[in-house]
């Protein structure tokens, strides 16, 4: 058997032992520094110590909360609005050019359906993956084990309980695909962007 941390990251049942408690305690101190920082430069410095596995152009608005930080992997050009929560008892993989609206929550943590096992302190985690070029609307909850495809938009207030494919608009509780993002959508938005650039 592996350590409790190894079991946790492997998606097996585990319980919080002293090693995990110490790691969470250390991270809480870093999170407190980040959330109390008064400048973007300070925040950027602290977030790099909290989430070392991150690309370029990362910006997270305070307040932000996570369990460990080390299990979060951010691509380039990532933005998270206020009150983002990432329960990273398992890995969270986020691609390039991802936008999270305010109060988006990513929960890798899960608890057994058996109350006896749950009450014993055992829990588990399943990784979350978000592809490139994804926009997640505010107050969305993403549950353990979910994969969200590239170029997808998740409507605000959604509860994502199952995988969502590439190139779609999805929303609701539970979150469901509403429609595909079409070539016409792309052309419409490109035309609007061109009009704005011509006005300058």
Q: Could you please describe the fold and organization of this structure?
A:
There is one protein chain. The protein has 200 residues and is of the alpha/beta class. It is 29% helix and 25% strand. It has helices at 4-9, 18-36, 40-50, 115-119, 183-199, and strands at residues 58-60, 64-66, 72-74, 78-80, 84-87, 92-94, 99-100, 105-107, 109-110, 124-125, 128-130, 135-136, 141-142, 147-148, 153-154, 159-160, 168-171, 176-180. The strands form four sheets. It has a seven-stranded mixed sheet with strand order 1-4-7-12-15-17-18. α2 runs antiparallel to α3 (40-50). It is globular and about 60 Å long. The model has no long low-confidence stretch (mean pLDDT 96).
Major β-sheet profile: 7 strands, mixed
Helix content bin: 25-40%
What's the end-to-end separation, in Å? 64 Å
Globally, the shape reads globular
Task: Give a nutshell description of this structure.
It contains five helices and 18 strands. By secondary structure, it is an alpha/beta fold.
What's the helix and strand layout?
Blueprint: H1 4-9, H2 18-36, H3 40-50, E1 58-60, E2 64-66, E3 72-74, E4 78-80, E5 84-87, E6 92-94, E7 99-100, E8 105-107, E9 109-110, H4 115-119, E10 124-125, E11 128-130, E12 135-136, E13 141-142, E14 147-148, E15 153-154, E16 159-160, E17 168-171, E18 176-180, H5 183-199
Parallel strand pairs: 1-4, 2-5, 3-6, 4-7, 5-8, 6-11, 7-12, 8-13, 11-14, 12-15, 13-16, 15-17
Antiparallel strand pairs: 9-10, 17-18
Helix pairs in contact: 2-3
């Amino acid at each position: 058997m592996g350590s409790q941390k190894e079991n946790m990251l492997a998606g097996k049942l585990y319980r919080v032992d002293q090693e995990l408690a110490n790691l969470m305690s250390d991270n809480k101190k870093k999170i407190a520094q980040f959330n109390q920082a008064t400048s973007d430069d300070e925040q950027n410095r602290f977030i790099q110590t909290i989430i070392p596995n991150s690309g370029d152009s990362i910006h997270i608005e305070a307040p932000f909360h996570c369990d460990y930080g080390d299990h979060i992997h951010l691509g380039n050009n990532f933005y998270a609005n206020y009150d983002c929560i990432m329960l990273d008892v398992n890995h969270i993989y986020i691609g390039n050019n991802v936008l999270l609206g305010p109060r988006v929550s990513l929960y890798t943590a899960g608890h057994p359906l058996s109350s006896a096992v749950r009450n014993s302190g055992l829990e588990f985690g399943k990784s979350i993956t978000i592809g490139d070029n994804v926009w997640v609307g505010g107050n969305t909850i993403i549950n353990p084990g979910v994969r969200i495809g590239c170029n997808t938009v998740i409507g605000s207030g959604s509860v994502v309980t199952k995988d969502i494919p590439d190139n779609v608009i999805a929303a609701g509780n539970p979150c469901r695909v509403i429609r595909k993002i079409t070539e016409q959508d792309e052309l419409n938005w490109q035309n609007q962007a061109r009009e704005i650039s011509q006005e300058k």
